[in-house]
Design brief:
Helix content is about 30%, strand content about 25%. By secondary structure, the protein is α+β, with helices and mostly antiparallel strands. The relative contact order is 0.22.
Length: about 90
Amino acid sequence: MAELLQITEVFVIVTGTSNRHVRTLADEVDEQLKDRSDRDPLRVEGITESQWVLLDYGDVVLHVFQADTRAFYDLERLWADAPQVDWEPVRQEA
């Protein structure tokens, strides 16, 4: 992203299945970043409605969408010139 947008290095785009799921995903990322690196977001948007939550950490911006909202804004199309990295979560054994 840095080559295209000077204000951040990485956009992370995630889809949640409901308002509660979107809020929980955003809260968990925030908590993990605080615990692991003592980082707080510079800006938080949309947490009340939880259709689209934005957590801005400066070099990393997290977008957590509900599916319909993600499709409507289509950030992947808007930033199609940016390199994309597909990520698969590591499943932890119980």
